[in-house]
Amino acid sequence: MEGKVKTLSITRRNNRWYVSFVVETEPKLLPKTGKEIGIDMGLQAFLTTSDGQQVEAPKYFRSSERQLAKAQRRLSRRKKGSNRRKKARLLVAKAHERITNQRLDFCHKVTCSLVQRYDGFFA
């Protein structure tokens, strides 16, 4: 790992362990493109640029809705305090986490693409 480790945190989410490092490194500068762009976040399209390009929002919740509904039905049938209820609760949390991770990944890919192509941004 390059750089100096500043902090380390260990977290547990949905029966999985994660380690996060905060590392101090020298910033890598991207080459100048000389382009600027305006961005409008919308309801119909995820975002529209001043070039006229529209980025549609993927429907991650819609595609995972059946799996989530099934997990929630299972949870509602379980007796409170039982081990099976704990397992069912973890399945619901896992389904929600999957949707969250898909959305975050999409946002990261879109912003990364824009940062590599343009120097200035206006909202």
TrEMBL record:
NCBIfam families: guided_TnpB (NF040570)
Domain Probable transposase IS891/IS1136/IS1341: 21-119
Compositional bias of kind Basic residues: 71-88
Protein name, as recorded: Putative transposase
Region (Disordered): 65-88
Classification via InterPro entries: Transposase
Residues annotated as transmembrane: none
